[in-house]
Specification:
- The complex is a heterotrimer of chains A (382), B (306) and C (86).
- Chain A is α/β, with parallel strands linked by helices.
- Chain A is built from 14 helices and 16 strands.
- In chain A, the strands form three sheets. In chain A, strands 3-2-4-5-7-6-13 form a seven-stranded mixed beta sheet, sandwiched between helices. In chain A, strands 10-12-11-14-15-16 form a six-stranded mixed beta sheet, sandwiched between helices. In chain A, strands 1-8 form a two-stranded antiparallel ribbon.
- In chain A, helix 7 crosses helix 9 and helix 11 crosses helix 12.
- Chain B has 306 residues and is α/β, with parallel strands linked by helices.
- Chain B contains eleven helices and ten strands.
- In chain B, the strands form two sheets. Chain B has an eight-stranded mixed beta sheet with strand order 2-1-3-4-8-7-9-10, with helices on both faces.
- The two termini of chain B are 33 Å apart.
- In chain C, strand 3 and strand 4 form a beta hairpin.
- The longest helix of chain C is centred in the middle third of the chain and has 5 residues.
- Chain C is globular, with a radius of gyration of 16 Å.
- The chains are: A alpha/beta (382), B alpha/beta (306), C alpha+beta (86).
- The interface between A and B is large, with 46 and 44 residues.
- Strand 9 of chain A pairs parallel with strand 2 of chain B.
Chain lengths: 382, 306, 86
């Protein structure tokens, strides 16, 4: 076991995966991740081209080009940077390039905030990338390895973003069981793309699509995302055999089986939520927790089966779809709409812009019976 | 029956009849040869050559989005280098992908000294979207967003001096070219493709549709651009001017402007005449900057259009 | 289903789209004054002018769009444009 900053654990996993081209533009709170990698390259611990590009749009573009030319790549960003590169993010998935990216989750301007919430990654949930959410540094490390394994599988060939809470995970020091080079060798084969930019076998990548063909092109991405479910599940099983660390592909469920109310929350707050569940239980509330790990592809069936027998589901969104409430809550409601049973689904919003996800906030969430922004400060509003 | 040189851009592309861009791109790509990877921005060249499921390209080619050709090319080159493969990489774009929306990525590529040749295909407008004004549109040109009218003489802005911006990054090789001077273009392309480091070729490619001339006059118009000193053919090594084509008897800019409908309004009235005088001064200043003879009304040459 | 949409694995497959139907005039090589300068070959935007013998050229009319540049640029006027007969 080693005490590591979350960013360092992520950088170490990426280093062991040995990408050959890294391109990134600094943005708080992603900076430490790429700085550790720059250091590794500078000291010969990672043999990679580290491109100090001039914007996030170019960072995504450079890894797109490098991936198309047949090498393993890496980039990372947050918030404004993710929005700035958004058109390229969609492009990477549309072109089926297995780029891996860390999103250090951070709030969206305006107003400007460098602190943690999930608005940034939620905005690009439609892009066709696999989206994973880590709860702690150990998971962040392991999920990056899984990301490469799933992305590069020929049945998938799609990019993967691993979302980690800015500051709360990236800058927090935790005990981590580090991956070893031997474990990575067992779990991650060499990257063997189906097609690359090679004068010996010229291909055209990124042709435009007339209406007669565009739908099928998008459907192919959807089909690949659905195929990723099997590949991802198998990858996690292999991770368990090799490292002893087992993760459910879709979510952690804690004390859900006999729960009357289940809290749904993603990322680091899920850890505090466990404590809130235990506390609520001592107070006579049959509480449980469901912490989704994969948000894309969205595991609707698995979530329906896990939640349909409870009385009330409270979805705590750390993002907001202004004008329509939360983000995750709508997907949970849709999943449960197919159930014969009809648990009440409440959507609460909290923890935007780095507001602390305290036990008190989580306790309030567990007791919520109506949709609300539960940590709204009246003293600031009036 | 037909024995054809294998052009690296195949026929069946959907460019307009007489398209200067496809003439120039054809010459440049053939000069580069088949051992190359091309990253192409969104624009006429990309759209006319890659209607899925077909492609006119006979070399490896990638298109991403509008403004990132230089960044994609930098990434491709980094990947090839990581694999120990010494394949030349070309980034190419039109007005937008070079001078406007693509300028940041171009500057980044040059400043990092990435080993990429950037070819700018300058047809002086955003042609693919319907002939709108770009940063490279010259003063007074009529475009869809800078139309000449009762209150307007067309584009009020001067053509961005992109070559100077590029030169400030001190690339290893910079050149201007146009298809009318094909030997010059071919020589510069071959030099560019063999050199290392950040390189830039700026090619003027007349657009029959956007500039308003009959499709058989494309080469003639390109020739006049050079002969009027509005587009000098020059070459710079490591940021220093090394060679420039001297036009012994330059033609007046009016010879260049008159055949193009985008400048028709300049021949209609007094205001137009004043603008043409301004354009002549631009041509004369350009000549002066390059140490070339300026247009002299006392000296003419017969058949200056050819 | 093809594995990657937007990926074309057949280089030069644009030749399946014959653009010859666009034109309203077609080139004719006269073969009277040709010097073999090759400018018609170089300046064709479609790349469909070919040298078939010394100082003899032909055109792939499946693709010729009839722009007339070959005729306009021939220094010795050995290519002419004629109206497309329909």
């Amino acid at each position: 076991m080693k005490v590591m900053e979350g960013s360092a654990a992520i950088a170490e996993a990426v280093r062991l995966a040995r990408p050959q081209v890294i391109a990134a533009y600094p943005i708080t709170p992603q900076t430490h991740i790429v700085e550790y990698l720059a250091d590794a390259v500078a000291n010969g611990e990672l043999d990679a081209e580290f491109m100090t590009v001039e914007s996030e749009h170019s960072a995504a573009s450079a890894v797109l080009g490098a991936s198309a030319a047949g090498v393993r790549t890496f980039t990372a960003t947050s918030s404004q940077g993710l929005l700035y590169m958004a058109e390229v993010v969609f492009n990477i998935a549309g072109m089926r390039l297995p780029v891996v990216m860390t999103v250090a989750n951070r709030a969206i301007s305006g107003p400007l905030s460098i602190w943690n919430d999930h608005q940034d990654s939620m905005i690009v949930r439609d892009a066709g990338w696999m989206q994973l959410y880590a709860q702690n540094a150990q998971e962040a490390q392991d999920l990056h390895l899984i990301a490469y394994r799933v992305a590069e599988d020929p049945a998938v060939s799609l990019p993967v973003m691993v979302c980690v809470d800015g500051f709360a995970l990236t800058h927090a020091f935790e005990s981590v069981e580090p991956l070893t080079a031997e474990q990575v060798a067992q779990l991650l084969p060499a990257f063997q793309p189906l097609h690359t930019l090679d004068p010996a076998d010229p291909v055209t990548m990124g042709a435009y699509a007339e209406p007669s063909i565009y739908t099928e092109a998008r459907y192919a991405v959807e089909a690949a995302l659905q195929e990723s479910r099997n590949v991802y599940t198998r990858a996690l099983e292999d991770l368990a055999s090799v490292t002893g660390r087992r993760y459910d592909p879709w979510f952690d469920s804690y004390r859900v089986d006999d729960a009357e109310v289940v809290l749904v929350v993603m990322g680091t707050a899920a850890q505090t939520a466990r404590v809130a569940v235990d506390t609520a239980r001592t107070e006579g509330i049959a509480a449980g927790l469901l912490a989704p790990r994969a948000f894309r592809p969205f595991p609707a069936e698995e979530i329906r089966r896990a939640l349909e027998h409870t009385g009330r589901v409270v979805v705590l969104d750390r993002a907001v779809s202004l004008g329509a409430g939360g983000v995750v809550v709508h997907e949970i409601r849709s999943a449960l709409a197919r159930s014969f049973y009809a648990p009440q689904v409440v959507g609460v919003i909290a923890g935007l812009g780095g507001r602390d996800m305290s036990p008190a906030t989580l306790a309030r969430a567990l007791r919520a019976e109506e949709d609300a922004w539960i940590d709204l400060r009246e003293d600031v509003m009036s | 029956m037909i024995s054809a040189p294998l052009h690296l851009i195949a026929p069946g592309h959907r460019a307009c009849a007489g398209c200067g861009l496809l003439i120039g791109a054809g010459m440049a790509t053939d000069a580069a040869g088949s051992n190359v990877v091309i990253a192409n921005a969104t624009g006429c060249l990309e759209v006319t050559t890659t209607a899925y499921p077909t492609s006119a390209w006979r070399v490896p080619w990638i298109h991403s989005v509008f403004g990132n050709a230089a960044a994609v090319a930098s990434g491709v080159r980094a990947a090839l280098r990581a694999q120990g493969r010494d394949v030349p990489v070309i980034a190419q774009a039109g007005d937008g992908g070079t001078a406007d929306i693509g300028l940041q990525a171009l500057s980044g590529m040059l400043e990092r000294r990435d080993d990429v040749l950037f070819i700018a295909y300058d047809n002086e407008g955003y042609m693919n979207t319907g002939v709108q004004r770009s940063g490279l549109t010259p003063r007074d040109a009529t475009t869809a967003t800078t139309p000449a009218g009762l209150r307007s003489s067309g584009n009020p802005h001067l053509k961005k001096d992109l070559v100077s911006i590029v030169l400030a990054h001190r690339p290893t090789f910079v050149a201007t070219a146009t298809p009318a001077f094909h030997k010059d273009l071919e020589r510069k392309m071959q030099r560019a493709i063999q050199a290392k480091g950040p390189r830039y070729l700026h090619m003027l490619v007349p657009c029959p549709l956007g500039w308003g001339f009959e499709p058989d006059r494309t080469i003639e118009i390109a020739r006049l651009a050079v002969h009027s000193n509005l587009f000098p053919l020059a070459e710079w090594h490591d940021g220093e001017l090394s060679k420039v084509k001297r036009i012994a008897v330059p033609v007046p800019v009016d010879d260049y402007l008159r055949p193009q409908r985008r400048f028709k309004h300049l021949f209609a009235n007094e205001r137009g005449a004043e603008e043409r005088a301004l354009i002549q001064r631009i041509a004369d200043d350009t000549a002066h900057r390059y140490g070339l003879p300026a247009y002299d009304p006392q000296r003419t040459t017969a058949g200056a259009g050819r | 289903m093809k594995p990657t949409p937007g990926l074309v694995t057949t280089p030069g497959s644009s030749i399946s789209y014959e653009t010859g139907g666009w034109r309203t005039q077609r080139p004719r090589f006269l073969g009277e004054t040709c010097t073999g300068c090759n400018l018609c070959v170089l300046f064709c935007p479609e790349g469909i002018v070919f040298q078939v013998a010394a100082k003899t050229y032909d055109f792939d009319l499946a693709f010729c769009k009839g722009c007339g540049i070959c005729a306009a640029e021939c220094p010795v006027k050995d290519v002419v444009m004629e109206d497309e007969a329909r």
